Amino acid sequence: QKEVEQNSGPLSVPEGAIASLNCTYSDRGSQSFFWYRQYSGKSPELIMFIYSNGDKEDGRFTAQLNKASQYVSLLIRDSQPSDSATYLCAVVKGNQFYFGTGTSLTVIP
Amino acid sequence: DGGITQSPKYLFRKEGQNVTLSCEQNLNHDAMYWYRQDPGQGLRLIYYSQIVNDFQKGDIAEGYSVSREKKESFPLTVTSAQKNPTAFYLCASSPWQGAKDGYTFGSGTRLTVV
Lengths: 109, 114
What we know:
The structure holds 2 protein chains of 2 kinds.
Chain A: E1 4-6, E2 11-14, E3 19-25, E4 32-38, E5 45-50, E6 54-58, E7 61-66, E8 71-76, E9 85-93, E10 96-99, E11 103-108
Parallel strand pairs in A: 2-11
Antiparallel strand pairs in A: 1-3, 3-8, 4-5, 4-9, 6-7, 7-8, 9-10, 9-11
Chain B: E1 4-7, E2 10-13, E3 19-25, E4 31-37, E5 43-51, E6 54-57, E7 64-66, E8 76-78, E9 87-94, E10 104-105, E11 109-113
Parallel strand pairs in B: 2-11
Antiparallel strand pairs in B: 1-3, 3-8, 4-5, 4-9, 5-6, 7-8, 9-10, 9-11
């Protein structure tokens, strides 16, 4: 069983819509959760991290964590074509990072 | 500006040749990591180092070697024993292993076998 699972997509949304990206993790002992954005041919860049149950908002991005159900999600409001990228979920368990395979998002103008 | 510098950006390797990928950081981070990324497979950990002169194998260390002689530098050598080295290689660092701040990534090196 993989530590982190993501739907590879592709996910397509129209410009201005809300994009919802989901991630599940296998170990209840996981402590910290991250979302990275990766443009084609580029390195990942950190968008958000969340440690506690509930929502965390930063501009157009909201991370949601539900430890009981072992999932973490990323909502992107007012999606823009520039949001088109692959989004990687990462989980810290102990002192190790585990990355999902990423979800490809396309925002259609 | 603080950050991680990877070089070269593109690298071509002939069959049977060893090549070394450079990774330098000026963030004063203790922990450094090397990942390999193939299409559809996400990031796979090759090696990591928590302190100078110490490093540990990751999930796919075979055919690779590293050194950590200085805090700032963590070069990766792709040896001839690595039979399928064509991939995108990412170096990352964090204040310490598992730090809650997450990783900072370099810009990557794309290695191609010719």
